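pipeline/complex-builder :: batch 7 item 3
reading input block
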Amino acid sequence: MNSKIEKELDELVAHKIVTPQVRQDIKQYYATKETDRPNRLFAIFGVLGSVLTGLGIILILAHNWDDFSRTTRTIWAFVPLAVGQLLAAFTLFKNKSAAWKETTGVFLFFAIGTSISLVSQIYNIPGAVDSYLLSWLVLAAPIIYLLKSHATTLLYVVLLVSYGCAVGYGDNESPYWALVALLAIVPHYLKLIKELPAGNLTGIYHWILPLSVLVLLGAFLNSGFSIGLLTHVCLFGLFYNLGKLPYFNAQKLRRNGYLIIGSLGTVVSLLIASFSYVWEEFLPEKISTNDTVITISLAMAAVAVLGYLFRKHKLLPFNLFQFSFLIFGGLCFFGFSQPEIASVLTNILILALGLFAVLIGSRKEKFSILNYGLLVITALVTCRFFDTEIPFVVRGLLFVAIGAGFFAANYFMYKKQLKTKAHE
Amino acid sequence: MNKLFISIGFAVMVLAQWFVPGKMILDQERVLAEGTSYKFRTRPIDPSDPLRGKYITLSYEMNKAKWIGEAPVNWKDNVYVYLKKDKNGFAQATQASNKPLKTDQEYVVAQGYGVYNDSINFQLSFTRFYMEESKAYPAELAVQQAASDSLLDNCYGLVFIKNGSAVLENVFVNDTPIKEYVEEGQQKNANL
């Protein structure tokens, strides 16, 4: 138990705020809580050990021991796999602890990669790294469900994103198999949400999954700025609205990766679109059918989530962030013929989003959201200094005004909080 | 989850994890045992794979053939390149098509790069030869040196081919396996 809490308890007993019995009960509570900790530590070190051992084995075998015969090397290719499978069988059928499952899952994950890489090496099998990663992904997927190893799931996500990048960015082809691999972990994710809705681990998934979708999206697109920005804004709109679903909205903000990525992504994408020269790249003839289909699908998915929120009466009070993808969609159509006006309207949209964030922060009495809104406005003003010829004095005055706004908004919020506390 | 399902699932997973590398091995062994060997004139260069180690990339002289297929060929489309052996066992491309032909001739599948004047440019697939990490770069240097000293009679990959599948068995420099050629060079340098 934390010695600080112990000291506090002693002080509370000395001042007769709590009875010695309550102190004892609190100590007992923390003592039972701590019994779980060594197991967790064992799992963390076990996973770290497995990751290092697995990577080490891959590197040792990558040396290519050409003094051994092909048969000897082929046998060695299967040794880590056999060891990993035996450990996994032992863990599974003896119903060992979560720490065992995590450790053996990670070891088996790397053993699969080792065996395929060694066979490719021994027989000089042609093929770039993407086909190798795909075989690894397919063979590793069952570990997620059989051993229920979260560390393996996270490694699997890293692997599928690497595969997607290798195919999408390296070979310029759409990595559909990465999408299938991502869908394969959705049941595991949904189960985790059901069983551990407020767990830190579940929170990690809420970040890792939208991030991997974001990275993979770029691998599917090939039309550049012409539609890429709109596609990304639609994805961020989808994320933001998913983050507003009752389950995610009830989470602590730091666990709501969808909401934060959605909000930040929308602002960053719109800031890029606020530069007038970006709109000159919006060329309808450059837009591929593939990118159009992806954009429409994402927009429809975001609208569907909005529709769900509307049916559940969760759209009030009005939040501009939830609709910004639709507004930007309209601006894009307009931008093909009137790029200058579309660029000005995007600036107004960002300003409105910044003001809305200030409003939300003030309504919820949250300094973080309030200052986020002010930062959005600051970023907008900073961006405008790059592509407009505003005189230095006006720029200076604008910055002073925003700085004053920061002070004023935080001060009024502070006053408001004091007032609320006084009323309580 | 039911224990029976877990057991079946685990067994399937284990089998799949053995089957994939096992099938890779069997396919390659079958070609090595039953396929016809061809020599492909080549030059090595030395890159590295983060997971599978160092290898030499082989740049083959054979990169063109008479085109009898249907144009156009898109970048990196698969094309069927038909082969014959010269009197020294070196492969020669006789014709290429984007569909398999009804002939007894052996073929390899290569990536097409465009048709010009009734001939197609292509790249053969078996361009990687994995080597022990300290020998890949010296292999490239040794071949370069031999070529500049006019000592290079031949440098070729020995490839076994069966029904379009190709396995690169070894790379030879002046009819010596490249591994031994590099080791001999390293030995000579050590004795100097």
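note: The first helix of chain A runs from residue 3 to 14.
queue -> next item
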